[in-house]
């Protein structure tokens, strides 16, 4: 057994006792403790990982401990409980999920560091080096996947805040100063959601750099969700600015991405529903704008209004009056006086 496979506490105790950790050989199990084949492999302590169709055996106890701790963090259950509603997520709930996600990423980073240390000590050109290299790829993928999940969670949180912000600003209750569904300190812009989807797409790019990852169905589905989410909320930003034509093109592009990739994940279905809802709102806004432009322009002056428009337009004077040029301090020159004689 290698020294790196021993627990730090075991190495410390052996050093205190003056024993050589390199010469340590674990004692054989007694006959009654040997696991039989009929008992199944569920009782064995051997850890095997699946990566690109290959089985990777984990021998380093530090890697095993970090992997076990990472898998024991209840990220998915807490995240699902926080997002089970449709309203805005509070700061406390968001921080709780982010703390669990960061803990899992830290455990995977620890496992990655130990796996890289074993890889540096492996002999060149051996099967062990190949297996350790694949193990490093596995943990790199896990770190990128957890970072992707973190960015997608933040994108969902900020998208809910944006919709709650828009509803609060448009409601009459918020205009009168009453308490709305979201605090003003939590107001969000659609551009924040766009930046989060861009960060998530960068995590997908890091995953695709690993050998054998490009073309996987789950990775392609995540990439489609990131692109569609970015286009959707870019369209929301244009809609808020009143650029309805640009917003419509973004909505249609996002819908085309979702239809092309055909994601079956919950995030893809949610984006599809939001995209269709945004297109419906945009169509209503276009119809309202078209009806407004069809109406005749009101008269600029009251005197120009007809009796049907005003009702009483008699004896109405224009005020202020229009500009009119008038003489100011005229100068008279009598040029004929030099040719006239006085009478005799």
From TrEMBL:
A GO molecular-function annotation: signal recognition particle binding
Gene Ontology cellular-component annotations: signal recognition particle, endoplasmic reticulum targeting
InterPro entries reported for this sequence: SRP68
Top-level taxon of origin: Eukaryota
Pfam families: SRP68
GO biological process, one term: SRP-dependent cotranslational protein targeting to membrane
PANTHER family registered for this protein in UniProt: SIGNAL RECOGNITION PARTICLE 68 KDA PROTEIN (PTHR12860), SIGNAL RECOGNITION PARTICLE SUBUNIT SRP68 (PTHR12860:SF0)
Protein name in UniProt: Signal recognition particle subunit SRP68
